[in-house]
Structure formats: structure tokens, C-alpha cells
Design goal:
- The protein has 9 helices and 7 strands.
- The chain has helices at 33-46, 118-125, 147-157, 164-168, 175-186, 189-192, 195-208, 219-223, 231-247; strands at 3-9, 18-24, 69-70, 73-74, 96-100, 109-111, 114-115.
- Helices cover 36% and strands 11% of the residues.
- The protein is elongated.
- The termini are far apart.
- Iron/sulfur cluster binds next to α4 and α5.
């Protein structure tokens, strides 16, 4: 396959960026999107140019590090798939691909396609944990948990913190991410003791980081590589209102 790439190049957050055109020739349809970028970077390095900076780690769809807008869609055209798991066979020969970083004020560009997602870390630090002393690994069935609750908590825990939901949202809302992180602990018995405090603190941290509000358009759910459901946002809103009401008693 031969492709034309229009890639966002930006030295740092203080310097304006611009699109630069590159050729990606002799690309195997079996390569992943990131392997295609590796090939382009090898060519750039050989020519003495700066390689395109992009984030990646596991390349298995589990770490949440990778992520870029591909032709205007977070993580590209394939549903429920991270950029690292997207393969070139899903594109056409001679296609033109526009590749950009996540665009959201709370995620400033560090370089090229790499953004600073520290805002997510700070939201987690505000309450995405259980502070009870749990000792060593307990026996699997020591704490009985109803199967529907365990399944729901597991669905929420599938969030890998990639930030695609924020990038896809016209308000740069982080509600899907925060709802997943709040819910996976709030649903389980180990997380219930700190449920109110967690919910209030994480929502406050989300607002302080400058993420926008949810207007229930569903763009986040549509691009989420882990198919986190909008239902978790409703669940978090309920938890938040209850926590707020109880905090005023
Ligand atoms: S909710 Fe989905 S899109 Fe948002 S950070 Fe989690 S995995 Fe990524
Ligand atoms: S590199 Fe880990 S999810 Fe893509």
C-alpha cells in the first residue's frame, strides 16, 4: 500500500504546530498503524529529520498510552479498537490520512502527537482508590459479591484511560472516563465505605482540570476502544447527587 500522511508536527506546547505531508510507501496491510508510523520514522531518521513523536507502550490495546485522531476520528475508523490494534488493511491504497493529537485544553500537546494526560492522573489521585487495609491477596470468594455487580464493576474497570472520550467530545468532557473510574470502585463492597467522598472529590478534580460538561451526545461512547457505556455517566450522576445531599445533612 502507498499512502499520503498529513501529520501534525509541533515542537512543544509554546510553539505553533502545522501539518506536514509525508509518503508512506510499500506498507503491508498486515502492519499495525503504529508499525506504519515506525517505517515512516525510519525514513525520517535516515534523512536526518526529526521522527514523528507519538505515545505507545503495550501495543496490545491494554495500557491506554497510544491515541491520535485519524481522519478526525479518535483511534481511527475501526470501532472498539485502540490505535495500536488498528491494522493498515482497514485503509485503502493511495488513501490520504490526516493524523493529529487529541485536541482538548486539559491535554496540552507535548510534541507532535503526544499530549500530556496528567489531568487524568490527578482525577484518579483525588479518589480512584480504596484506602482500607486489605492485607495480602484474599481468597477469591472471601468477600461474596453478587455476579451482576461483579460483571458491572468489571465492565467499568475495562477503561484504559486513553482519553479518546475527551478528544471526541465537543465539550472536551471527561465524564465517561471519570464515570468508569468512580463506578468500578463504588459498585464493589470494598469501595462502598468511601463512595460519597470518592465521587465528590473526583468530580471536583475533573471540573478543576477544565474538562467540559456532558451534553449526552454519545461521541465518547462511539469512540471508546473498551465500549464503556454511557449508562455509567447516569450512575455517576446519581451517586453524585446522593453524595451531595448526604454531605448537606
Ligand atoms: S472511557 Fe473509553 S475512551 Fe475514555 S479513557 Fe476510558 S477507555 Fe478511553
Ligand atoms: S500502546 Fe497500549 S493501548 Fe495502545
Amino acid at each position: 500500500m502507498n499512502l499520503t500522511l498529513k501529520v501534525w508536527r509541533q515542537k512543544n506546547s509554546d510553539t505553533p504546530g502545522k501539518f506536514v505531508e509525508y509518503k508512506a510507501d510499500d506498507i503491508s496491510p498486515d502492519m499495525s498503524f503504529l508499525e506504519m508510523l515506525d517505517i515512516v520514522n525510519e525514513g525520517l531518521i535516515k534523512r536526518g529529520e526529526d521522527p514523528i513523536a507519538f505515545d505507545h507502550d503495550c501495543r496490545e490495546g491494554i495500557c491506554g498510552t497510544c491515541g491520535m485522531m485519524i481522519n478526525g476520528v479518535a483511534h481511527g475508523p475501526l470501532g472498539a479498537t485502540t490505535t495500536c490494534q488498528l491494522h493498515m488493511r482497514h485503509f485503502r491504497d493511495v488513501q490520504v490520512l490526516t493524523i493529529e493529537p487529541w485536541r482538548a485544553r486539559p491535554f496540552p500537546v507535548i510534541r507532535d502527537l503526544v499530549v500530556d494526560r496528567g489531568a487524568f492522573d490527578r482525577v484518579i489521585q483525588a479518589g480512584g482508590f480504596v484506602s482500607a487495609r486489605t492485607g495480602g491477596s484474599p481468597d477469591g470468594n472471601a468477600v461474596p459479591i453478587p455476579k451482576p455487580d461483579a460483571d458491572l464493576a468489571m465492565d467499568a474497570a475495562a477503561c484504559i484511560g486513553c482519553g479518546a472520550c475527551v478528544a471526541a467530545c465537543k465539550n472536551a468532557s471527561a465524564m465517561l472516563f471519570v464515570a468508569a473510574k468512580v463506578s468500578h470502585l463504588n459498585i464493589l463492597p470494598q469501595g462502598k465505605a468511601e463512595k460519597d467522598r470518592r465521587t465528590l472529590n473526583m468530580v471536583r478534580a475533573m471540573d478543576e482540570e477544565g474538562f467540559g460538561n456532558c451534553t449526552v451526545m454519545g461521541s465518547c461512547e462511539a469512540v471508546c476502544p473498551k465500549e464503556i457505556s454511557l449508562d455509567f455517566i447516569s450512575r455517576m450522576n446519581r451517586d453524585y447527587l446522593r453524595a451531595l445531599w448526604r454531605s448537606k445533612q
